[in-house]
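I am going through a labmate's work and have reached the protein record below. What it holds is a sequence and that sequence's fold in token form. Please read both lines and tell me whether the tokens look consistent with the sequence. Do not assume that whoever made the record got everything right. Thanks in advance; the entry in question is below.
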Amino acid sequence: MARVCVFDVNETLLDLGALDPQFERVFGDTSTRQAWFGQFLALWLTELVTGEYTPFGTIGGSALEMVAERQGVALSDEDKQQILGGLQELPPHPEVEESLGRLRDAGIRLAALTNSTQQVADAQIDNSGLRDYFDQVLSADTAQSLKPAPAPYRMAAESLGVEVGEVRLVAAHAWDVAGALRAGCAAAFVARPGMVLNPLAQRPDVVGADLREVADRILEVETGS
């Protein structure tokens, strides 16, 4: 039984769609946001598998530069900073606050775990109005590694004073769910639009279309309610 739920932040709790106006302004197309995040993912996984560590924000900026070069767009430093700075101002998805409140009120401890640096993580959680729901806001930067490597999940468990097997990672990313399960955590998948599970990885016991459905299932599994 996992009595601590640890939440991924970007896309799981907070809506990256709020960045679309910036991408449309700079690139002329909101779909570039998805291309950027895909490039972002490719870069940080390259860092992981080659044993390098680069802060998440630096990787995000490099991914923007690559997308801009690929599309022939002149990306100014100001444009880059406005997009990356916008990550600190993302709103929560509509059902997030209610769902976190239900889990907390049921006696389940909640924490956040993001690949963003601690400064960005704190700003995101504070600016989204979610701080009061969480015991801790944790950054993978503390482990000098990024999810889905095992170290951030183990760091989170240690910081929360529990065993890895007592942690349930809640995420909208198949790679995060797979990483948590392979590190020994339980997991829950938030199947937001366009998100699907990895068929090569173990399937988590909790899956829902949004955080409300996931919270319902977690409460069934953890408390029998």
